Amino acid sequence: MTVDDALLARITARVREDKSDAGPPAPLSASEIRDAEKRLGFALPPLLATLYREIGNGGFGPAYQLLALSGGSSRETAVEAYLSMRGEGRDTPWAWPEGVLPILDWGCAMYMCVDCRSEAGTVLLFDPNSGDPQMAWYVDAPSLDAWFARYLAGAGWWEGDADDDLAPWDPEDRHGA
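Given the sequence above, the corresponding structure tokens read:
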């Protein structure tokens, strides 16, 4: 799978348009991304790796913005969140699926995640607030490309005026999206 150059250019332009005075943290080097992937135990989808390498180490995107992948962030990083969620002895009924990387913390225990083991990089919403572990995972977009395209169009559910009914995610269907 390759990165769509036109989508990457649109995301870059939007980040420049949206940026605060400081802008996103400095991008990561290819070596830093490889180190993060080694800690995670899986590769990032090409678009996500490219965004962290070319735009910044998080700090851009919708609402609360992407988490830093790793490194010196004052907030929890995506790697730290994943390793914490996968950690043994967690006192929770929710088993965190292998290869599902949290990339954005919505607050209230909700995370936007990427299924890095799916062929398309399915984007998932983790929302444990119903209290039912069977109803905590939803498909937000069939791919990371589609999710960013919705962000660019202002059409995500987080915009408040979108009328999205998210379908429950079936972890057994990780290669179908």
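The longest helix spans residues 5-18. Try to locate this feature in the token string yourself.
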